[in-house]
User: Fold this.
Amino acid sequence: MQQFIGEWQVWARALGIFLGAPLLALVAHWIVFRVLRRLEMSASIAEDLYRPSRLILPVMAAIAGIGALPIASGTTAELRRLLSLVLIAAFAWLAISVLRRVLTWVASLHRTEGPDNVSARRIRTQLTVLYRIMVFVICLFAVAVGLMMFPSIRQIGTSLLASAGLAGLVIGLAARPTISNLLAGVQLALAEPIRLDDVVIVEGEWGTIEEITTTYVVVRIWDKRRLVVPLSYFIERPFQNWTRHSTDLLGTVFIYADYSVPVDEVRAELHRILENSGMWDGQVCKLQVTNATEHTVELRALMSAANSGQAWDLRCLVREKLIDFLQRRYPECLPRARTEISRRPQVRAAETS
Assistant:
């Protein structure tokens, strides 16, 4: 009886230590984060770290209290290994949360709402690609560390190297598109051929870069469709980027008129239209005769705007207003085909004798 009571006391003490340590860790965690949440500077950081640390602290306390359990050493090792796997996953979760908070803070310093936001979009694109790559690396490292805790996996014999190498080659060939897209993501972050909100023409479609993931890019087409393109596309194939260095663009409008059109009057009207449009940035305003055929002359109106959307609207407005100007003021200068009809002189009938 005394032996049973003694064993019960040992088990009660061991379970008290094994279960009490995580509970104390949870209480300490609650107190610390309650204080952090009262600090305005640390509130957002506390929200990101709350859940991962709520798992890390009790697991660490449980690992420390395993030695107090009166169980076999083999069982203790297996239990410690299981808790260590949970701890590795929790630390990976914590690292991803910290990384996301840091990158979010850096991105908040570079707003993209301004008119000239090339630098901000470049940094945001780099941060987006970097975050996805780092998450992949953290997960891969966590899995590798977890596998290293099993002796049977660490001690792979030399006899399996050939088969492992062959399997690795097969897996590498099968995953070649995924790997190439991951490498393309690194190249995109370094070379920056595209950035978020860049205006591009891809596969004949005009749109903006809406999202960049680890494997594909989403292009928002002007009519609200979405074009999903692999990352490797922007490394291997040509495409148009209208906002590579700046957002301002030049727009052109072609007008075809008769040879009698007064070019100076049309040039003055173009300048008046641009000044009253509210979309002209005041940089470029030109009207030139760029071609002449046997029927018409080609007038090219060149104008500038702050971004691609305003450039498109400005082109449509200038085209409409110039045509209306010619119709109202110089309708005879609109394109027309000239024909000349000549009458042959009537030949008098020869007088008969």
User: Anything to note?
Assistant: Confidence is low (pLDDT under 50) at residues 155-175.
